[in-house]
Amino acid sequence: MTGKITAVKAMEILDSRGNPTVRVFVALNDGTTVSASVPSGASTGENEAIELRDGDAGRYLGKGVLKAVANVNAVIAPRLIGMAAGDQATIDELMIDLDGTPNKSTLGANAILGVSMAVARAAATSLGLPLYRYLGGTACRRIPVPAMNIINGGAHADNSVDIQEFMAVPFGAPSFGEGLRSIAETFHTLKKILKSRGLATGVGDEGGYAPNLASNEEAIETIIEAIEQAGYRPGVDIGISLDSAASSFSPDLGTTYELSRSGGGRLSSSDMIALGERWVDKYPILTWEDPLAENDWEGFRRFTERLGHRIDVVGDDIFVTNTRYIERGIQEKTANSVLIKLNQIGTVTESIDAVRMCRDAGWRYFISHRSGETEDTFLADFAVAMDGGQIKTGSASRSERIAKYNRLLEIEQELGATALYYWK
Ligand SMILES: O=C(O)[C@@H](CO)OP(=O)(O)O
Ligand SMILES: [Mg+2]
User: Fold this and answer.
1) Containing domain of residue 387, as a range?
2) Rounded-to-integer distance, Cα 404 and Cα 392, Å
3) From the CA of 292, how far away is ligand 2's center (Å)?
4) How much of the chain, in percent, has pLDDT values that exceed 70?
5) Are residues 84 and 158 in the same domain?
6) Which residues does the UniProt record annotate as the domain Enolase N-terminal (predicted)?
7) pLDDT at residue 109 above 80?
8) Ligand 1 center to residue 177 CA distance, Å?
C-alpha cells in the first residue's frame, strides 16, 4: 500500500518560454514529498483541455496561473487529504467531477494535471519504485525511439519555414543510447552545414535550428545531408518525422492551407495530399503528424488512405489525446497513430485511457512533450511505462528537453541487458 496524502500545495513557476506554469507538491504520511510541473503548448488544438490563465490581472502580461494555483490549494487539496496516493484513477475522477466541465475549464487542466502527476510520483516513491515501473509494471522495459526535432518552423520559430517540426529518428540504432548519440551528432553536423551557408543557427522553442530556408523541402534535404555527413545512412539508420501542425497555417482550420512563410502559396486539402505523396516518395519519412488541419477529418482520412500503409499518420490537434475524438478517428480511419500529450487531456488516467484505446485498435501512439516545458522528467518515465516505442521531446540544445533524454539514458542503464529498443 502507498502512503496517504497529508498535503497538496501548488506554486507558480516559469516554463522554458519564460511563461508561468503550475508546480504541485504532494506529501504523504510515510514521509514522501514530491513535486511535478505542468508543460504548456503553443500550437494548441481547439478542443484541448483548458489551461487556466489569470487574464487581465496584469502579472506576467496576463499569463499568470495564480487562479490555477488557488484551485489546487483551496478546492482540490482539502478533498484529497487522507486518500491513498496509489488510488490514481479515483483521485483523477474526483478532480474531473469537482471540475464538472468536459474541458476542465472550471479548475483548469494545468491545476488538475499538476496534482495528477504529483500523486503518481508520490505513489511510486512511497512504494520505492521508479516511476516507469510503478506506472507500467515489469512488462515495460522498452526505451522509446526518440524523434529529435532539429529544425523548427511554424508557430515555434520566426523563420521562413511553414512546417513546424523536422525530426531525426534513429530507428536503425542498436540501443537508445547509440540512437541518441547518432542524432546528437547529426544535430551538430547540421549546425556546421547551416553555418557554412551563412544561415542562422539560433534555436526555436523546442531547440531545433530555425534558419530562413528557401523552402520546406530544403529543410528536409539539409537534414539528409547532415545525416550523411555525420556518417549515418538516411532511411536505414536515421529516418525523418514531420509535424506539419497544419492547423497553424490553415486559417479556417480545414479547407485552405497557406504556405505563406516559405512563399509556397495557397493549397487545397487535395494539394496537400499530393504534396505528401511526393515527399514520401522522395524522402525517408517515417511518421507524419498533423499533415492536415484539425477540422479536415475528410482530408486526413484521404491522406491516410493514400499513405497510411507506408508511414505512421499521427493525429495531434485533431484528437487532442481525447478518447472521444480518437474513437471517431478509429471508426473513420482518419489516421493510424495518436500523439499523446498529458496536458491536452489533463489527467494521467485519461492519458492512459487514450493509450489503451490505441492499443485495442492496433494503432500506434507517440508520447510527446509540449513546446513550453520544464525540467520535470515525468514524460520519460511515462513513455517507458506506456511501452509505445516512440517519444518526441525536442532537441539536444535546451536543458528542459535534454532532461528527458538523460532520464531515458538512466532508465536504459537501470534496465541493463533487459532493455529493449525498437519500434514497428
Ligand atoms: O504540436 C506539437 O506537437 C507540440 C509539441 O511539439 O507543440 P505545442 O506544444 O506547441 O502544441
Ligand atoms: Mg503536433
Assistant:
1) 145-418
2) 10
3) 11
4) 100
5) no
6) 5-135
7) yes
8) 25
